Amino acid sequence: MTQKLKVLELFAGVGGFRVGLEHANKDLYQTCWSNQWEPSRKSQDAFEVYDYHYPDSENINEDITKISNEKFEQMDADIIVGGFPCQDYSVARSKKHEMGITGKKGVLFWEIIRAVNHIKPKYLILENVDRLLKSPSTQRGRDFAIMLAAFNELNYSVEWRVVNAAEYGRRQRRRRVYFFVYRNDTPFAKKIDDKFEVDVDNLLEDDTKYDDYIFSEGLFARQFPIKKEAYKNRHAFYSLAEDIVEISDNFSGKVWNTGIMRYGRYFTMDTQPTGEEAPIPLKETLQAEKDIPEKYYIDDENKLEKFAYLRGPKKLNRKSADGHEYTYAEGGMSPYEDLELPSRTMLTSEGTVNRSTHFLKVNNRYRLITPVEAERLQDFDDDWTRYKKLSDGSVEEVSDRMRMFFMGNALVTGVIKRIGIELEKLI
């Protein structure tokens, strides 16, 4: 029997990574630890939902920055997973030449690096919004390059891909960047070294040998196939500066939606999916009409007019904080969702009266999506977020608003399932 892989789930939410990996192979992936903390909130609903489903693991409900190095060292995790918040990752040196972080919100990625430094897992699977690859707007790609350099310093390689879930047979047009990070002494890493004749002491600036990795050998290539050519011939090979602060100050390279970093050099390419997998249309996600409570239907004329306004085209005169006047223009969108298409990306504001909310017209009645339908869009089981377990052990129902918030924050667990299936093959 294959030895279980112990998993630490960071920024766990309601368990998206764990759900996906267990759907891939529950006998292989054993999540032993999780951490979930919602800052600035008295109520820790997401943690309580996670704890309701998974009382068997050590679930830590505290700020990740408060978890000690010693605590991390006690975790012999083979894999770290997590969808960490997207923030500013610029770095600077203090007067004592210690690495620091510019801005309060930049610490969260570095907490992952701290955990890696003390746990030394074989693999990581991470997720973030795709705009990370172009962040910040004033120095596009810098933040991602800093991440690559940070993993390189710890002797890891990084493979990445932007995946639109609907382009690979799922229900939602949700684009996210996924990372597969692996330690350079793992059998998979050594196999790649042998196959591509990598001489660590004499790396050649030859990007042609990376085509096979991008198109066929890498984890993402196998589970999320792409066309065998760079889109608009966009591809490039870069060497990362050894000093992360130098990268922060001077990075000027490119980062496209696909790539691989090994030994301080990375190859990146703009790629397109093969288009061979049909998405699941929204109509197949909807619950049976008899199961829809009346509270999700909208008959109020004022609310209907509000949705019509929000989804319509508009030009508004606005004034900035410094008094500058400008015109804000917004194009129109369909008056309600096309049920023949996969859903649009779900946001944390889902279910409120705003432009991003999914607004349905079914059998000549208007309504919002239900929490169960929101869960289906992220490939969770029906009613996954319905209950939570409080600190005293009692169980309560979760509000609709929080259930929608959870799903807007979650990931498509079907994507993680496919990553888990391929990781099992690679190891």
Description:
The protein is an alpha+beta fold. The protein folds into two domains: 5-277 and 413-426, Vaccinia Virus protein VP39 (Rossmann fold, 3-Layer(aba) Sandwich), CATH 3.40.50; 282-378, no CATH class. It is built from 13 helices and 19 strands. It has helices at 16-25, 45-53, 69-73, 107-119, 142-153, 187-195, 210-217, 219-223, 244-250, 301-311, 371-377, 400-409, 413-426, and strands at 5-10, 29-35, 58-60, 79-83, 91-93, 99-101, 123-129, 156-164, 175-183, 235-239, 258-262, 265-269, 297-298, 314-319, 325-330, 359-362, 365-368, 387-389, 395-397. The strands form five sheets. The chain has a ten-stranded mixed β-sheet with strand order 3-2-1-4-7-9-8-11-12-10, sandwiched between helices. A three-stranded antiparallel β-sheet has the order 13-17-16. Helix 1 (16-25) links the parallel strand 1 and strand 2. Helix 5 (142-153) runs antiparallel to helix 9 (244-250) and helix 11 packs parallel to helix 12. The radius of gyration is 23 Å and the shape is globular. Mean pLDDT is 91; it is low at 94-105.
Could you name the ranges where pLDDT drops below 50 across 5 or more consecutive residues? Answer: 94-105
CATH architecture grouping of the largest domain? 3-Layer(aba) Sandwich
Distance between the termini: 14 Å
The CATH topology name of the largest domain reads: Rossmann fold
Overall form:
globular
Helix content: 25-40%
Q: Supply the number of structural domains.
A: 2
**Spatial extent as radius of gyration:** 23 Å
CATH superfamily of the largest domain: Vaccinia Virus protein VP39
